[in-house]
Amino acid sequence: MAGVYVHIPFCSSRCSYCDFFSTLRLREAGGPYVDAVVAEALLRRGELRGASVRTLYMGGGTPSQLPMPLLSRLVMGLGRAIDLSGVEEFTIEANPDDVTPEWARSLLPLGVNRVSMGVQSFEDGILRAIGRRHTAAQAVEAVNRLRDAGIGNISLDLIYGLPGQTVESWARLVRQTIDLAPQHISAYGLTYEPGTRLWRQRESGQVVEVPEEQCLEMYRLLVDMLRESGYEHYEISNFALPGCHSRHNSSYWDDTPYLGLGAAAHSYDGRIRRYNPGDLQQYIGRVMAGEPAFESEELTWRERYDERVMLGLRTSRGVDAARLREDFGDEAWRYFTREARRHIDAGNLMMEQDGRYVLTDDGIMLSDSVMRDLMWDD
Ligand code: SF4
Questions:
Q1: Which ligand 1 atom minimizes the distance to the CA of 93?
Q2: Half-sphere exposure of 186 toward its Cβ, with a 13 Å CA cutoff?
Q3: Which of 8, 69, 95, 101 has the most CB atoms within 10 Å of its CB?
Q4: Is any ligand 1 atom within 6 A of the Cβ of residue 115?
Q5: Quick check: CB of 11 below 6 Å from ligand 1?
Q6: Residue of the nearest CA to atom 6 in ligand 1?
Q7: 18 ligand 1 Cβ < 6 A
Q8: Are residues 9 and 264 in contact, defined by beta-carbon separation less than 8 angstroms?
Q9: What's the gap in Å between 75 CA and the centre of ligand 1?
Q10: Is any atom of ligand 1 closer than 6 Å to the C-beta of 14?
Q11: pLDDT by residue for the chain (378 residues), tens digit each?
């Protein structure tokens, strides 16, 4: 079983908080880029080692910026390079202002059955301030258009801790989101990434950061409100109606191999991480010359152990101690269970009957420090 991720690095403007790799050069680079991604798929399909591809995810950037003929050329090209007949979940990320009725109607025929939309907020003033191009009304309209077009699996992304947001306005936003009844919700706390416009605005005093205690309150409120509305909290930042977990993202958390295509995409096969360059020119040039563009790094034993613990604890499945022992040996298992005991006694962790260690609600609030304690300490 494997997943394929395709990075579409085009945006029509830059949001103030974003440090993802993206460019505004869709018009001149869109066609050559799509052809390069297909060429890369042909070049690297062997890395899948015959595993059946179950999930395909187009992220960005803004994949919904790709004109439909280009998106279609990309999907057809990928389908010729890689066997996609076993794909059960095909997600595309979209911005609400790109979701026209025509765009939405073109998705199902391409095989797309899930749309992940960056809504972020329902307050127009805040949306404008962080450089988003859409309004709250456009986000609502986009959800309706996707439903009308038969897309039955919609995920909405939210950000809490945005400048100007209060606990009360956040509660209203969560309520509005629940009322839209998406199958899946991802919510991330705002981070101030060095080099972004938002970072500079904070440095110059133009923007005031929401205090950490208030952000925690927003997060607690989110968890409570979504649970009461029937959403399962299956990963620290992710919530889903029963049966609607993101299968693609779950594969990142449970060690399933994935092939990442496109500029700045990462791949992982259980041992080796491969990183494509975050540079369009370099990426297209190398791939079209028939060479892989990636740099690779084999993870050490310690890195793999730390990833297993950290990614496992982020999810409601937790860390399976028996599997940890099988894969990393008795010493690692003894270390993990000894450190975990302290956090069980403190109420941050619990052990399920089948031997999985899972963060409690209190533990989720302290997740960084619990994870640090359980990671390998030489
Ligand atoms: S649309 Fe997405 S990728 Fe593009 S700048 Fe905004 S947050 Fe970043």
A1: 2
A2: 16
A3: 8
A4: no
A5: yes
A6: 15
A7: yes
A8: yes
A9: 22
A10: yes
A11: 899 999 999 999 999 999 999 999 999 999 999 999 999 999 999 999 889 999 999 999 999 999 999 999 999 999 999 999 999 999 999 999 999 999 999 999 999 999 999 999 999 999 999 999 999 999 999 999 999 999 999 999 999 999 999 999 999 999 999 999 999 999 999 999 999 999 999 999 999 999 999 999 999 999 999 999 999 999 999 999 999 999 998 888 777 889 999 999 999 988 899 999 999 999 999 999 999 999 999 999 999 999 999 999 999 999 999 999 999 999 999 999 999 999 999 999 999 999 999 999 999 999 999 999 999 976
Domains 2-253 and 301-374 share a fold: no
Q: Which long-range contacts (CB under 8 A, 24 or more apart) does 263-271 make?
A: 263/7, 263/9, 263/21, 263/33, 263/293, 264/7, 264/9, 264/20, 264/21, 265/5, 265/6, 265/7, 266/5, 267/5, 267/44, 267/47, 267/294, 269/47, 269/49, 271/298, 271/299, 271/304
Q: What are phi and psi of 274, to 5 degrees?
A: -125, 135
Rounded to the nearest angstrom, the distance between the alpha carbon of 14 and the centre of ligand 1 is 6
2-253 is classed CATH 3.20.20.70:
yes
Q: Say yes or no: CB of residue 199 within 6 Å of ligand 1.
A: no
Ligand 1 pocket residue status of 96, Cβ below 6 Å: no
> Which residue has 């830059």 as its token pair?
14
Q: Which atom of ligand 1 lies nearest, measured to the CA of 60? A: 3
258 and 252 in contact (C-beta within 8 Å)? yes
DSSP 84-122: -TT--EEEEEE-GGG--HHHHHTHHHHT--EEEEEEE-S
Q: What is the CATH number of domain 301-374?
A: 1.10.10
CA of 23 to the centre of ligand 1 (A): 10
Q: Which of 7, 10, 13, 22 has most ligand 1 atoms within 8 Å of CB, for mutation?
A: 22
Q: Tokens standing for 44?
A: 């690297």
Distance (angstroms) between ligand 1 centre and the Cα of 118 equals: 9
By the 8 A CB rule, do 170 and 218 touch?
yes
Q: Which atom of ligand 1 is nearest to the CA of 132?
A: 6
Q: Where are the domains of the chain?
A: 2-253, 301-374
